[in-house]
Amino acid sequence: MTTAQAPAAALIKPRSARTASAQPRSISPLRRGDGRSGWLFLAPFGVFYLVFLIGPTIYMIVASFFNTSMVHTDLGSFAGFANYAEMLTRPDFWSAMWHTLQFTIYTTPPLVIFAFVFAVLTNRVRHGQWFFRLAFFLPFILPSATISLIWVFVFTPATGLWAYMQQLLGMTPGNGILANPNTAMIGIAIATVWWTLGFNFVLYLAGLQDIPRELYEAAAVDGASNWSQIRFITLPLLSRTTTLVILLQIIASLKIFDQVYLMTSGGPGISTQVALGLVTGTAFTDNRVGAASAASVLLFIVIVAVAVIRQLFDRSAARREA
Amino acid sequence: MTTTAVRPGKRRSYVSGAAPAANGARIGTSGKTFQVVSIIVLVVFAIIWLIPSLFALKTSLTDNGVAALGAQAILTHWNPTLHSFASFFQAGDIWNWYLASGITSVITAFLTVLFASMAAFALSRLRFRGRNVTFLLVILGIMIPTQVLIVPIFQMLNWMSLLNTYWSVIFPQVPAVIAVFIFKQFFDGIPAEMEEAARIDGANRWQVYWSLIVPLSRPVIAAVSILTFVGVWNNLLLPLFVLSNPNLMTIPVGLATVQSSFGQRYADIQAGAILAALPLIILYLIFQRQIVEGVTGSGLKG
Amino acid sequence: MAKASGLSRRGFLAAGLAGLAVPALSACAGPVSAGLAGSQLNPKTLVYWNLFGGGDGSRMQAMEAGYQKTHGGSSSLQSTTFAWGNPYYSKVTLSTVGHKPPDVAVSHLTRAKPLWEGGILDPITDDDLASVGLSPDDFSQAPWQAQKTNGHNIALPLDTHPLVMFYNLDVLGKAGLLGDDKQIVPLDSMEKFEAALASISKVTKGPAITVANVAGETATPWRVFTTLYNQHADATPFLSDNGSKLTVNWDIFEDVTSRIQSWVKKGWLNSGLDYGTAQSYMFTGKAGMYLEGEWEITTAQLVKGLKFDMAPIPTLYDKPAAQADSHTFILPKKDRSPEQRKQAMGFIKSMLDQSMTWAQGGHVPAYLPVADSAAYKKLEPQAHYASAAEHAVYDDPAWYGGSGSTFEGIVGAELGLVQQRAATPAQARQSIESQLKIYLNTPSPL
User: Fold this and answer.
1) ipTM of predicted complex
2) Fewer C-beta neighbours within 10 Å, C or N terminus of chain B?
C-alpha cells in the first residue's frame, strides 16, 4: 500500500472513455432485472468497502471526540474537542507537520527534475532502454524494509559507504547523516528519491509517448536544435504530467511513514517525526486512541483537501484539452 | 495522456516507436553530440542508481566479520560466501515470513480482482437505480487515505477477533477502489453488441460476466493482480501493527521488528534485505511490461 | 481470440484456486492454520518474548538453550527478540489486546507498572511461586518491593542493573587514583571527585569522563542526572501521582545540571559523544572513566588489551544513589490452564536458576540463591560494584514513564542538550515543562 498502491489511493479522473454502453437508452427487455443483479454484483466489494473503509472512517471521527483507550473496549469518557485542542496546541504535532512539509520540499524537486531528465534522455536512446528502465524503475517495486536496511547501512557513521565516498572526495565524514537532527531528514529524502524516482520516470516516459512525432519532425525541418526541441515542445507538453507528479508527490509525502519508522523512528529526538508516526505513537505507544484519532482526522482533512485540488485541477485541464 | 494501461484490442508499448528515438536517419552532427552526451549522462546516473543495490548484494556475500569493518573492507575483499543466506534459511523464521507474505498477497490479489471486477461489471454493464450514486460513492472512496485509518482498522479487527491472523492483513486491503475504477474503465470500452448477442443467446448476467467479460479482461486482470500483489507484499504499516506473532509476520515486518541477538551482523542484515525483495525482483523480470504499464496506468488514472 | 480467452479464464480460476489451495493443503502446518483459522500455534511450545540484543542477547540464548535441554528439546520453547524500547512494549500491549500474547515476556520493572495498570498482566500469586518452589524471600528486597503493586506481584525480577562507573586502569594509575588493591580510591565527595577529574584530564589531555549524549542517546543523560539528583537529601520524586504531577525539586535540578555544565566547560566531561564513541574513549585511554549501565561489561571485556575495572557511582552529595531498573518476567493476560501456568512459571524458575550466566553479563542477580552464592561473590569485577544495586533508584511510576519511555526521551534529550551546552538549565527546565504538559494534563489512558 505504500509503494505500488500509493498512487492508487489518490484520485481518479472521472473522464473515462464513455463508449456506446455508458448511457442508458430505452430499457430493453434484456435490461429488466438488472437492478437485483447489480446489487448482488456490488455486494461483495460493497461489504468490504463499508466495513474496512467507511466504517473505520466513521469510527475514527467518533473516537476523536472521546478519551478512547487502546486497552479498553469501550469508547471512554466524552472529550468534546479536547483532543483536537490538544493536537492543535502540541508543539510536536506542528513539528510533525513541518517535517512532512520539509520532506516534500526536499524530495519533490529532485524527483521531478531527475525523473524528467532521465525520461527525456532514455526516450532518445535507441539501444539499451531496458537497462535504464531497470536501473531507475526497479527500486520502486522493492519493499520499504529493503530500502531502509540498505540505506541505513550505506549511512553507517564513519565506516559506511556514504562516509567512504565522502573520504574519497576529500571530505570529513561527520557523525553520520541520520544521527544529526539537522541532516537526518536529508538522509531519508535521499533514500526516498532513490526509491520512488522510478514511478515518476515511467509516468514521464508515458507522457512522452503521447507527443506526436510530427511535432519533432517539423521542428527539425525548421532547424530547431535538440535543446530547443526539448525546451519548446517536450517541456510544455509534459507540463500536465509534471503537475500530476507534484500533486501525487505531495499526497505521498503527507502519508510518509515507512522510511521514517525504519530509518530513524522519528529521531534523533523528534527531528524526523512525521504525522503518521505521531498518530501510531499516540495510539500504539501511549495507548491513546482518542487523541490519535483526532490527529488522524486532521491529517485526513489535509490529504482530502489536496486530493480535491488535484481533482479540480484535472477537470479544468481536461476541459482545456477538450 | 490517453495511454491507457490496458485497453481491449489495442495495446501499445511506449518503449518503441517513440518519435525522438526513431528519427535516426536524420540526425545531424548536433544530434550526434546530443546522443553521446545523453548516453553518458544516463549511464553515469544509472550506475549511481545501481550502486546501493549492488553494494547491498556485495555485503550480503561478504563475511560478517569483514562487513563489520566498513565499506572499504567490503569493497576490497573478494571472498564471496553464501553464509549469510544459509544462516537465514536455517533459522527458519524466513520461511514463515515468506509464507505469510505469499499467502496474504495472493489471497488479497485474488479477492480484489474478483470483487472489484464484479462491482465494476455492475457499474459498467448493468442498468439500475442508484448506480450513478453508487459510482460517485466509490469515486469518493478513492480520496480516503487508507494509511490514516490504521488506528480504527486495528480496533475493528480487534472486535472481529481477527488480529494476528492473515485475514487482518488481507481484508483491509481488499476494498481497493482504484481497482474498481480501472476495471470499469476497461469494461466501458467493450462493445455492448457482444454482450447483447450473448444475452439474446440466453446467457444470464453471471454468465456474461464470467464467460464473456472476464476472458476479455485478461490484461487488466493481470495488471491489477500484480499491482495488488506487490502492494500487499510491500505493505509495512498495516501488518506491523496487526501481526504481533513472529510466526505470522510478513517478511518486511519480520525484518523490521525481530532483531538477531548477535549484535551488528551487517552481512546477514543485507541478506535479509535482499531476500525480502527477491520474489519481487523475479516478478519484475517476468512481468516487466505489465508492472510498468500497470503502475503508469494507476498513476495516470489514480 | 475465443480460445485464448478460454485459457485465460481457466488460468485465472486456477490461480485463484491455487491461492486458496495452498493453505487448504497444508492446513496441518502450524503458521498457516494459525494465520487463517486463528488456531493456536503448537500449544505445547512455550512462547517467550524479550528485547535483549548484544551481549545480553547471547547470554539469554544460552539460558534458553539450558531450558530446552531439560524440557524436551528445541520444540519446547519459541523465543523472539524484538527491537528495544517503545516498539517492544507496543508489541506486548497490542498482542495482549489482540488475545495472542506470549506465555512469558521480559519487561523492565518500570514498564511493568503501566502494563499492569492497563490490564495487560496476570498477577503472580504465592501459589504460582510455590508451584515451582519459589517464595518472596528468594528475591532481593529492593526490586521485589518495587514490583509489588496494590498488594499484587506483577513481575518477577531477574536482576537489578544500576548505573555504574567504568574506569581505565592505565589512565587512573597514571593519575595516581588507584589504591594498593589496584582499585579506584574512594571519591565520595564533590571535592575529591573533581580533583580526580582534574588529574585524569591532565593524563588524557582531554576529557576525564564520558557520558553518551548525542545521536538519539537520551537514556544515558537521564541515568546520570537522576543518579546525582537522588544523591541529594532533599530530592523529591520527579513525577508523582502516576505522572500527573511534576514534583521535581527545581533547585536541585539547577544545581546538578549546572554542575554537569561546569565539568564540560572545564574540559573534564565530553560535550557531545554518541553511545559507541563515548565508551571507546574510555577503552582507548582518551578518557579515564565512563558512566553507563553495567551491561557494557561484555563490550569492554572484548576489547583487546584493555585493563578496566568498575565501581559504584561515587557519592558526591548527601547519600549514595544509582539510577537502576530491573529486568523482570511478566505473564501477559491470557486464558491459561493450570498446566500452562505451571509451564510458564517453570520457565521463569529455570531462567532464575541460570542467573549466574546472566550475572556474567554484568547484571546484579535478584535471585538470592545466586546473588548470595560464593560463586557470584567471587566474580570480578562484578563484586566491585554489586553494592550499587542496594541504592537503586527506579524511575517514578507514570503511564508514559519507565526505561526507554516517552518521559525518558523528552527529559533525556533536554539533559543531553544541557551537556552539549546547547541549552541552559533554565531553558531545559522550560522545555521539559512545556513538553511534559500534554502528558501531565492527560488522564492515564490505561
Assistant:
1) 0.85
2) N
